[in-house]
Write a structure and sequence with these properties.
Blueprint (H helix, E strand, L loop, with lengths): L10 E4 L6 H31 L6 H18 L2 H10 L3 E3 H34 L4 H4 L2 H27 L7 E3 L6 H7 L5 H34 L4 H9 L2 H23 L3 H25 L2 H16 L1
Parallel strand pairs: 1-3
Antiparallel strand pairs: 1-2
Helix pairs in contact: 1-2, 1-3, 1-11, 1-12, 2-4, 2-11, 4-6, 4-8, 4-10, 6-8, 10-11
Length: 311
């Protein structure tokens, strides 16, 4: 296929979630509040982990990186959506659309990879507790984050390359609030069958493999915990991974839900509303899940607040 000439399609039109002016004001206030909570909550997690030496462990190292990536993930789409609702100018240039698509896939894949790294950390902690400090050393943790970054960068560049090769004819209206690769494939006027197959292959590698590793890790964790004789030991083992397991269910549950809804529901607006779940709501809930269910985080937060009040 020929490369896309940017001058052919100067702008895309993002249809957003609704055209109702009254509903637009409600959506603006709601999403602005949720985005503020998401950024502040994840920044607080980063501050707590970085300021408390007792939390300088592999699990909280991955958690602080996950919070940073969640901020980037939501910031890729939500500020643009808020701007479009406020100004009612829902256009995005071809170049901006490609950049948004690239960062969206990078942060989304990075989110999945960090969750996978955290699952491996919990697997080692429960299944190989005597060797935990040796296996999960700072060097390995750094390499896992670096590998996740490179893996995510490759995923984003593949999506960028695919969309940049598409040819669009006439005005392009995207029935969502961001440049979603599957929607762009459907809107192209050229043959996209080969690209569709490639999208499924990329999704299987960059999303399926991490998901399978998470399932494998927790299958081994459950198997190890069930072999523990005392009920107190089982509860303690499960409690060490309860927060992460909640995040795993939330992240993959909403992602699968959006995928199923896009295949079953005919309304693109409904699919766009479902996409809000994993783009905004999941990153917003992550800090609450870790702070409410984690005694170390709550203890560090109280210590940080008492330090601030005493100053």
């Amino acid at each position: 296929m020929e490369s896309q000439n940017i001058t052919q399609v100067p702008k895309f039109l993002l249809l957003g979630l609704s055209d109702d002016p009254d509903l637009q004001r409600l959506l603006f206030g709601m999403f602005l509040f949720m985005y503020t909570v998401t950024v502040c909550g994840n920044l607080l997690i980063i501050l707590i982990v970085s300021s408390n030496r007792q939390l300088h462990t592999p699990m909280y190292f991955f958690l602080s990186n996950l919070s940073l990536i969640d901020i980037g993930f939501t910031s890729t789409t939500i500020p643009k959506m808020l701007h479009d609702i406020y100004t009612t100018q829902k256009t995005i240039s071809y170049a901006e659309c490609l950049i948004q698509l690239m960062f969206f896939n990078f942060f989304g894949c990075m989110d999945s990879m960090l969750i996978t790294s955290m699952a491996y950390d919990r697997f080692v902690a429960i299944c190989h507790p005597l060797h935990y400090s040796v296996i999960m050393n700072p060097r390995l943790c750094g390499l896992l984050v670096l590998a996740s970054s490179l893996f995510s960068f490759l995923d984003s560049q593949l999506h960028y390359f695919m969309v940049s090769q598409l040819i669009f004819c006439g005005d392009v209206e995207i029935p969502s609030f961001f440049c979603d690769p599957p929607l762009l494939l459907n809107l192209a006027c050229s043959d996209t069958s080969s690209y569709s197959i490639l999208v499924y292959c990329i999704s299987g590698i960059f999303a399926g493999v991490p998901a399978l590793w998470v399932l494998f890790s927790y299958a081994r964790i459950v198997s190890s915990v069930l072999r523990v004789s005392s009920s107190g030991g089982k509860y303690k083992a499960f409690s060490t991974c309860a927060s992460h397991l909640s995040v795993v269910c939330l992240f993959y549950g909403t992602g699968i839900g959006v995928y199923i809804s896009s295949a079953v529901v005919s309304s693109h607006r409904s699919v766009a509303m479902a996409a809000v779940m994993y783009i905004l709501i999941t990153p917003m809930l992550n800090p609450f899940i870790y702070s409410l269910r984690n005694k170390d985080i709550k203890r560090a937060l109280k210590k940080l607040l008492s330090r601030k009040t005493s100053m």
